[in-house]
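::Amino acid chain::
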Amino acid sequence: MANSPAAPAPAALACIVLAHEDATHVRRLVEALDPFPVFLHCDARTPEAVFREMTDGLPDRVRVLPRIRTGWAKWENVEAEVSGYRAALAETDASHVALLTGSDYPLAGPTEIRDLLAAHPDESFVHVNPLPWPEWGRDGGRARIRFPHWAWRKHMIRLPVPRRTPRGVVFAGGSQLKVLARRHASAVVHTVDTRPDLVRFWRRTWVADETFVPSVLSTPTLAPGFADAHVAAPLWWIGWDGTARKSPPWLTLSDAGALLERRTLPDVSQPQLFARKFATERSTDLLDLVDAAFGLREGAARSETPAAGVVAP
């Protein structure tokens, strides 16, 4: 009887991708993340044809998560994020879990990513900002927490009646994009499972995906030791251009200089390993340049037959 193949080494990184459109870019992103396992969530509002284009014939390292109806500024974005953590923790031995959107892209190959994570084996890469945070306006974001909110067609509806806030929680904010150490991702899942009062509260908190996880991590009773076990530096390069806008601008070839400069300067102590936002119709030339610069997707053209292994939602 032939010997069984050796078990693969545990992945250093598992990747959650939250997507809702541009199947071509999502497929390209999945290729660029090879060989890391990917947990892909596609918004339940996405048309079925786009969903199938996004997911049919994905390789075995990709797990398609059950679809949730997500949306701008909604709690359901946190639900999708947490479902990714839950699956990654259950199905991999990854030391870290990254949260990406379907318009992100790596700026580093797997060896560089593994080396960075190996240097921080039990630390998260996330910048949490205790509230009030001056960058969030006149009240520092406290109104997001204090008043009940609803999102409707990319508009904020705020009930101007203060509500009681949960005791013992250290409220904080930060970017949705992050890389969590395994134990911190586990703390987030555990909080969702054991604190239904916090889940109810955050369902009416404005842009919950920018405050729920930062607040959980910042609360010692929920994530013990986090304060001394994270790197307060973003791993994403985002092309903010100084204009008032609700989301970052799309990147094009004209952004290549600024994008690559940050990754190639010799005195940069903390490399930014991902960037956003990219779209097939706007960013293909830039993405080709990124692939060439960092050796991504080198095996993408070796076979025209897609691999099997989609896990149905």
Residues 1-9, 301-313 have pLDDT under 50 and may be disordered. Residues 76-91 form the longest helix (16 residues). The domain at 13-294 is CATH 3.90.550 (Spore Coat Polysaccharide Biosynthesis Protein SpsA; Chain A). The chain is about 30% helix and 15% strand.
